[in-house]
Amino acid sequence: MRQFIDTLHAWPWLLCLLILATTAGAGNDTTESHQRIREAARAHVLARADQLPGQIEVKIARLDPRLRLRRCERPLETYDSPNGLRPGRNVVGVRCTGQHPWKLYVTVDIATLQPVVVAARPLARGQQVSAADLRIEQRDTARLHQAFYTQTRDLIGQRARRQIAAGRILHPGLLERRRLVRRGGTVQIVVQRGPLQVRVQGKALQNGALGDRIRVRNQASGREITGEVIAAGTVQVAH
pLDDT digits over 93-115, tens only? Predict the structure, then answer.
């Protein structure tokens, strides 16, 4: 008898728990899945991967757990924000055009992985860079604020402006090309006329590294001309 009375007393609580469980289940059936929204945003970005440089990785921010949206009876639609898509942080619009329409923006983070040149080992200030000092790694370039190199050959022979740690991405601000011509110094001006090559003495009016175009003065004529640095102390002028 005592057990029967205890059961009667517990019945209202059991009934309440049953009602709550049923209501929660109904709510899940009528509430849009956050996962479905996030996957729609991911698919939107991946469909436009060819518009972005390099290989991309996409991270979708989690939605506010308090957000409750009516489940959409139609496929979710997605669209770019007014700023479009670019490497780094973005937002993607997701909307329902069903009987109970809604829309929201989902935060997405786009990493663009590209091959870049990094220091293979520490470099001392003034050290001339060799092939053994460099390696190629895949890095996220979305948040790089400096230009970067993608070929090691572009850096060989340059010198470190300052001490550089191993693994650091190399950019023009860290390195300087070796000067082959110094301002005020004497240079050989090479003038190529078909098979004929004429060399005259000149004076450099600017510093120059290999491949730079600098102004020089012909010592004989006093004329200022522009040529390309092709070797130490040598400037070639097109004719």
Answer: 999 998 999 999 999 999 999 99
